[in-house]
Amino acid sequence: MRLVRARTGSRHSAKATARHNAAALPPRPPTLVRRLGRFALFSFLAAVATAVAVLPLGLLGGSAVRAGTDVWEALPTSLAAPRAPQITYVYANDGKTLVTTFYDENRRDVPLDQIAPVMRKAVVAAEDTRFYEHRGVDSRSVLRALVSNSRGQSQQGASTLTMQYVRNSLKNDPSLSPQQRVNAGIDTPGRKVREMRYAVELEKRLSKPDILNRYLNIAYFGAGAYGIYAASQTYFSKAPAELSLPEAALIAGLLQSPDADNPISGDRGAALQRRGYTLDAMVKMGTITAAEAAVARAQPLELKVSRPPNNCVSVTPQHNDWGFFCDYFRQWWGRQAEFGATPYERDDALRTGGYTVVTSLDPGVQTTALAQSLGVYGYGSARSLPLAVVTPGSGRILAMAVNRHFGLDPNPPEHPTYPNTVNQLVGGGGGVGGYQAGSTFKMFTMLAALEAGMPLNTTFNAPGRLVTKWPGSGAGSCGGRWCPANASPSWMNGNRTMWNGFGRSVNTYFVWLEQQVGVRRVVDMAKRLGITFRAAGDQTMAAKVDEWGSFTLGNASTTPLDLANAYATVAAKGLYCQPLPVLSITDPDGKPVNAAAPKCRQEVSEDVAVAATDAARCPVGRGSAYGKCDGGTAEAVSGILGGRPVAGKTGSSEYNSTETFVGFTPQVAAAGIAVNADNPNDNVGDGVSSSVNSAVARTMATSLRGQPVQGFPAPSRARALGT
């Protein structure tokens, strides 16, 4: 508390007035009497201040507390149940490798037993040497400040450590308005009285260690570090429990002027002076010896500065590719109702909620996925190969990679969209609608047909060109009807079943099959397995779905993530799980958050999924349980996986504008699409298809390393042969 002597007019006019009125003034009392009178006045004011501190809470601030209301209940939320903004940590699947953090304030609460005892002692010595003696308000300090300030000496405060905690809490109280939080830091008599009263109430309810712990977790130590955990990490890259005496003294000394004195961007000399002040105060308190203080004072200032990344664009440069996974994680978080009713509330929870997130990102699989993507197209290529890897039965995402740098750095003028981008090229969203995946969509037609009761041996004599019931125009028209053709008539035409029709990717067979089951069922099957229509043209066709005969040939846009997860549903015997980027989430109290649990539902029957899997073994060079495969479009995949049971499908869009492969085993599913995301007229060509197949297969091989070999069950005879 400060007293400021009132002054009016200029110095000249004041002196003139004094001379003019000198004769009228009574004789001045002797100096000793004046000092005694002033001392009595200050003692009286100190007593008043202390008395005010114990007045009923309802008399403060012009508000009344209802009779019978517990005083503790009348305290602001931030004091009765504190929760200052906390940093959220996001880790890879090992729970140790940091991906990034999210925060408004760099702060993480830690219990007192995880703070070095020397740090606790240093803060008390630097800020409130009588902390363990007073009950929230220190009348002796109030008196000392009144005397010093009234004499025009250096301005002194009388805030105890408890009062400082009150002030910091109110400044961070989310239940208060922005103006109220600002007012909590303005130096006024009313604010001081309020702080005193709240401090007294806190001391009645909380122990000294509890108050000290709360203070250490909320205080600002400069350089953007809020709380002792952030401070020890920022200045010395260590946990608070590991702080030495000179380190603790330096940090404690910063509390008076945290920004001006911090040794990173402020005054290093002032920081060392404050360290010395703290050491001297600790000696006076008897918490360290003079010899210990001398040794600590002689220690050079050795900082080991570290600042936590903030958001996805701050992912460590060594693993910049993790940014695409991180971006998907943030999109996912924004859809989870557990974190708030609105997108704003959920984003705020991420930045202030203090969660610990262990993601499903597997750094080893991610490294392989990126290497395989770069092996097809380098960073300097306009074309890209986004890859996604998913775990069947949980939807958990192991990797999301593409030959791009995730970031906002400018690109060269000759190619302004790459290699740096924050567009979600792997998972879609944010304006990215996806890419055509060609014949991989034949899976949805096969599932719909099986579900409708048609067995795998459903036979059709597939012609080189099929005239359909849907209208057509241009080169794809036969008498006004759409008439698709087979890419390799000599290899594809003839009697086909779902086994060899899928293995050889026979267009006319699957268009015929789609006509038999109905395109509506096929599109619905794709949607049930998570295919999302983000592109405007696809949304238009979905609205008039019965006219979408070309859907089975994959002219709708999708993403590697959606496609991998759809095939993962087949691998999981029809159990669809929403794509999930996390393994666990815990709140600041260590309690698990339900959002981390897989969200799964049985979308197709097990027998239908098993039958579709049996046919999906044909494209990759593996025989079906009934020995019905006779040729595939990606037979090298089986060898890359060492003969392990595998299934999958290739896909080429019209004019080979994209080339796709999606593969799966019971333990993993992966997909990659070669494309020029910025120019659909830049056809990647069929020459890249084997490289895409290999890239996905090798990524799968890394994912399966160390896992037992699992086979696929055989479908029932009814689903396979219709008998």
Please give the radius of gyration in angstroms: 36 Å
Largest beta-sheet characterization: 5 strands, antiparallel
Question: What assembly state would you assign to the polypeptide chains in this entry?
Answer: single chain
Structural class: alpha+beta
- Give me the side-by-side strand order of the main sheet: 5-4-19-18-17
Strand content: 5-15%
Gap between N and C termini: 93 Å
**How many H/I helices?**
29
Are there runs of 5+ residues with pLDDT below 50, and where?
Answer: 1-45, 52-69
Percentage of residues assigned to helices: 40-55%
Shape: elongated
- Kindly state the number of beta strands: 19
Average of pLDDT = 88
Give your account of this protein's structure:
It comes from Dactylosporangium roseum. α2 (31-53) packs across α6, α5 (117-127) runs parallel beside α12 and α14 (268-285) packs antiparallel against α15 (290-298). By secondary structure, the chain is of the alpha+beta class. Strands 5-4-19-18-17 form a 5-stranded antiparallel sheet, sandwiched between helices. A 4-stranded mixed sheet has the order 2-1-3-15. Helices cover 41% and strands 10% of the residues.
